[in-house]
Design goal:
Elements: H1 3-8, E1 14-16, H2 25-33, E2 38-41, H3 47-60, E3 65-70, H4 76-85, E4 90-94, H5 99-107, E5 111-116, H6 119-127, E6 132-136, E7 142-143, H7 151-161, E8 166-169, H8 175-183, E9 188-191, H9 193-196, H10 205-213, E10 219-222, E11 229-232, H11 235-245, H12 250-257, H13 261-267, H14 291-309
Parallel strand pairs: 1-9, 2-3, 3-4, 4-5, 5-6, 6-8, 8-9
Antiparallel strand pairs: 7-11, 10-11
Helix pairs in contact: 2-3, 3-4, 8-14, 11-12
Length: 311
């Protein structure tokens, strides 16, 4: 048992990230049943949709699970009210000020973890009295830190700065990656992209297949004027690149992005016009498997490699 397994009452210090359009109740419950911590991604859900997913997750697992909430979500108060009403025990927050919601959540007996991309924000999260921190390098998929700090540099720096449990994220999808993160000072890992390409992921099968077929250099961090996001290069990215190269302003980029690009790409499978959010580790994902098998492989490889290094 380590700090993370003890904090969440789970078997393995492996958390499945809350990803838009990928992490519904099926994925969260599968990961939790396998001994990790599954997270429902509220970022792509209307409030009542989230309530439905929480209810289904409760029926599908008797193990701990949580909800990931981007704090800039437009209906944040409704989302948090539902989380409290439904008795969710664990909340991971991101993309916003942790001081706003950490205290109200903790007053309702909820453990709070905040995702950060720099030492500066890790210290702010610790000051807000979160229970743990996810330090995410810019290798990660989806929305990313403006600092563009890699996981290899970020984890040891955050470890030295904070006193609370630390989860590493960004570019981790294998037992070898987990071992590296733990050696850098992490108490556990949060993994997104590998679980996005799982059987239980709610992403469209065409998106999953595109993740599996991706190679080095297929992803890129873009839309830095709005909110940096790592995407697989496609026609939509080409439009963004052309706009940025000629100096398009924020309003034009926002109009180009629209309101449903990520749903179009990830959930509906439009590989041309959709926003295909995924991490750099996608280049090393070669198959689509069940979440339990993925988690087991990561843990077993981590244990084997750790043992070999100690010989």
């Amino acid at each position: 048992m380590n700090k993370i397994t003890q904090l969440f009452d789970i078997k393995y210090p492996i958390i499945q990230a809350g990803m838009v359009w990928c992490s519904g109740w099926k994925l969260a419950s599968a990961v939790s049943n396998a001994g990790g911590l599954g997270l429902i991604g509220a970022g792509s859900m209307h409030p009542e949709t989230l309530r439905e997913h929480i209810a289904k997750c409760k029926k599908a697992t008797d193990r701990p699970f949580g909800v990931n909430v981007p704090l800039l979500y437009p209906e944040i108060e409704k989302i948090m009210s539902i989380i409290i009403e439904e008795g969710v025990d664990i909340v991971f927050t991101s993309a916003g000020n942790p001081k706003t919601w950490t205290t109200p959540l903790k007053e309702n007996g909820i453990k709070v973890v905040h995702v950060v991309s720099s030492v500066k924000f890790a210290l702010k999260a610790q000051d807000a009295e979160v229970d743990a921190i996810v330090a995410e390098g810019f290798e990660a998929g989806g929305h990313n830190g403006r600092e563009e700090i890699t996981t290899f540099c970020l984890i040891p720096a955050v470890k030295e700065a904070i006193d609370i449990p630390l989860l590493a994220a960004g570019g981790i999808g294998t037992g070898r990656g987990m071992l590296g993160a733990m050696a850098l000072g992490a108490d556990g890992v949060q993994i997104g992209s590998r679980f996005a390409a799982s059987t239980e992921s709610s992403a469209h099968h065409l998106f999953k297949e595109r993740v599996v077929s991706s190679i080095e250099g297929d992803t890129i961090l873009t839309l830095k004027k709005l909110a940096p996001v790592r995407l697989i290069k496609n026609h939509f990215y080409d439009l963004v690149k052309e706009a940025e190269e000629r100096g398009a302003g924020i309003d034009e980029l926002r109009a180009l992005l629209g309101k449903r690009r990520s749903k179009l790409g990830i959930f509906e499978g439009d590989l041309k016009e959709g926003e295909l959010e995924i991490g750099q580790i996608s280049a090393y994902i070669n198959n689509i498997k069940g979440a339990a098998e993925i988690l087991s492989e990561i843990w077993e490889d981590y244990q084997r490699l750790k043992s070999e290094m100690c010989q």
